[in-house]
Design brief:
This protein has about 100 residues and is mostly beta strands. Helices cover about 5% and strands about 35% of the residues. It has one domain. A three-stranded antiparallel beta sheet has the order 5-6-7, with no helix packed on it. A hairpin with a 2-residue loop joins strand 1 (about 25) and strand 2.
Amino acid sequence: MLAGEHEEEEHNHRFAGVTSQVIKDGDSHVHAILVSTDFYEDHHHEIGVITGPAIDVGDGKHVHFVEGKTTVDDDHYHKFVFATLIEDPISKHKHC
């Protein structure tokens, strides 16, 4: 949060999105992510970030580590750290 916001009510934002297609990066690859968070009271934030390289988790699957800061809105921003999902939840259900 930015300076001068000691009295602001603590809150967080949720978001979900889809990564871009593969962006070649040396021996690995990364993805771009561009999403908006949900609204909290009267504001939301945008996230624009490039993931870290692919991290092998076995069985032919991988994840990406992501960290950064949201845009500033309502005089503050949020730091975030997350990993992408291992499976595509929609494709998983197509085989049922």
